[in-house]
């Protein structure tokens, strides 16, 4: 069964479609990438899937997440789906973190909520052990120091690992990662990608990975959807789309990425 079924999803602002009749499915255990240049509608598609569109935007069509319709659902139903079914990691980890709360507590709160939902009783010691275990899973060093730190007291890469640990604490079926490495330097990018790939494999999670960066997407997904100006222009297995793109826009993206790689190589 498909874990995610998106049918004719459109997102509009003041009568203008920013996402236009997008359809794709994602089976359990699959890893799908959405690629496209800035402004092509990738993030709005992702936020519509979890029912978190900014005010002023409205979605039509159908998004079936684990069999539940998201479009038109009440906030209470959406809250139940978020976390339990789908968790998200965004480009800027600061959006996920409370600046005034120590990061260990933030991870702990998500873990406790997950346990409460599942009806599993737990004590303070359990939370502490779970937080350290989650921090270990995302390879955060010096767990005592980092758990006791505020978000601004750790590095950008460490903040993203904290955000990933919080997503993981939900034990989601679907992980939505929206440009999760874009704000990081190249080395940290590679480490974070490798971490995400390992966690998705270890936990058998389904992955929706959004990026404008083709080599990044190619390294982590099986299938790819190419978006341009709110519309899906091409879809297929990642190797096939990259080796023999059928749409001129995909070819342009590939040429631009190669040119960028060559420029980096020459630098
Ligand atoms: N809250 C909003 N109100 C009005 N227009 C918006 C809003 N958010 C996004 N848009 C517009 O919708 C279009 C799609 O935006 P979206 O953020 O989905 O693109 P994207 O492909 O994710 O780009 P990026 O990689 O830069 O994040 C853009 O033209 C953007 O300007």
UniProtKB/TrEMBL annotation:
Where the record annotates domain ABC transporter, the positions are: 4-254
Example of a GO MF term: ATP hydrolysis activity
SUPFAM superfamilies linked: P-loop containing nucleoside triphosphate hydrolases
Q: Name one GO cellular component term.
A: plasma membrane
Q: Where is the signal peptide?
A: none
Where would you find this protein in the cell?
Cell inner membrane
Protein topology in the membrane: Peripheral membrane protein
Q: Which PROSITE patterns match?
A: ABC_TRANSPORTER_1, ABC_TRANSPORTER_2
Q: Give the main location.
A: membrane
Q: Does the keyword Lipoprotein apply?
A: no
Sorted alphabetically, the keyword list is: ATP-binding, Cell membrane, Membrane, Nucleotide-binding, Transport
Taken from the record, one Pfam family name reads ABC_tran
Belongs to which family? Belongs to the ABC transporter superfamily.
- What name appears for this protein in its UniProt entry? Peptide/nickel transport system ATP-binding protein
């Amino acid at each position: 069964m498909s874990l995610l079924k998106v049918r004719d999803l459109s997102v509009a602002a003041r009568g203008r479609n920013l996402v236009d009749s997008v359809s794709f499915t994602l089976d359990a255990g699959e890893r799908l990438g959405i690629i496209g240049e800035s402004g092509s509608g990738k993030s709005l598609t992702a936020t519509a899937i979890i029912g978190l569109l900014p005010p002023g935007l409205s979605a039509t069509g159908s998004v079936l997440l684990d069999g539940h319709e998201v479009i038109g659902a009440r906030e209470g139903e959406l809250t139940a789906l978020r976390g339990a079914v789908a968790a998200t990691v965004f480009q800027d980890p600061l959006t996920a973190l409370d600046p005034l709360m120590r990061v260990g507590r933030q991870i702990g709160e998500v873990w406790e909520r997950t346990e409460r939902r599942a009806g599993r009783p737990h004590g303070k010691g359990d939370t502490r052990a779970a937080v350290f275990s989650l921090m270990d899973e995302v390879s955060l060093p010096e767990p005592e120091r980092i758990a006791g730190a505020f978000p601004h007291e750790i590095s950008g890469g460490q903040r993203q690992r904290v955000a990933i640990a919080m997503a993981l604490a939900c034990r989601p079926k679907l992980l939505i990662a929206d440009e999760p490495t874009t704000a990081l330097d190249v080395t940290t990018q590679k480490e974070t990608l490798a971490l995400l790939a390992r966690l998705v494999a270890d936990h058998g999670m389904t992955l929706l990975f959004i990026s404008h960066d083709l080599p990044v997407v190619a390294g982590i997904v099986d299938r790819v959807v190419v978006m341009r100006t709110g519309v899906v222009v091409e879809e297929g297995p990642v190797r096939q789309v990259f080796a023999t793109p059928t749409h001129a826009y995909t070819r342009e993206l590939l040429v631009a990425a190669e040119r960028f790689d060559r420029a980096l190589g020459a630098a």
